[in-house]
Amino acid sequence: MSSHFQTLDRQRSRLLWLGGILLTAMCAALVLVTWSGDAASLEFDLGHRWPTLVGLAGMVLLFVFYAQHKHRQLAATEAQMRDLAVREASMEARFSEMSFLFDLSTQLQLRLDLQEMLDLAVQRLIPCLDAHQSSIMLFNEAEGILEVKAAAGADLDRVQGARCAPTAGIAGHAFTSGESLILTPEVMRGRFPQETKQGRVISSALCVPLRFRGMPIGVVSVSRASGEPFGPMHMKVLEAFADHCAATVVKTNHHHALLQHVQHAA
Questions:
Q1: If you count Cβ atoms within 10 Å of the first and of the last residue's Cβ in the chain, which end, N or C, has fewer?
Q2: pTM
Q3: ∠ CA 15-20-26 to the nearest 5 degrees?
């Protein structure tokens, strides 16, 4: 981000230098066109020189307007970049809190129930990414299907308890291929036209696989009904969360399986 601000500063410096050079050239041109030929004096022959003077004045005004326009553009770009930097820092802080929560639960002998952890995760994902809906699907090895284990936000009746084959739909594609997806209406029409659902408005969505040591265990998704689309920054943050979440799910399952084995052995 700092490199972008440096680029803006360089553009401002070039604009100022260009303005200084142009004004200097204008002054020199004004002297030349008004020079009478007499080395001892300068006289203004407006009757013959006024078109030239008007042209020079017009060029100066055009440059002033151009400089103001570029300055407004640079100021608007800088404001957008600063806003983006603040939002990125805010998201990273929120996900750091969530990562700390999972780390703490692991260190405390995984006292939190897995379902409670997943429910809390999808609830926290919504404000972290300014989303309207989030869900986590896990692979059920016994039945060989992907099923929604936790969901929060809008349209819960469409999402809760949803099940699909590990090769079906958008979630199946992310699960089997390991590809993180940024979904917009254009991407949906181009890559997943059959997955567009009537009556459901989604302006942008992210679908990221949950993987532990390269093995897929599920999918995490977030979506927005309106607003600006998700970008690579959002996907990167969600991928970091997905890796951490996958490790926590696997460790929790192993912990519970070990407890059950000990109980049966006792």
A1: C
A2: 0.61
A3: 120
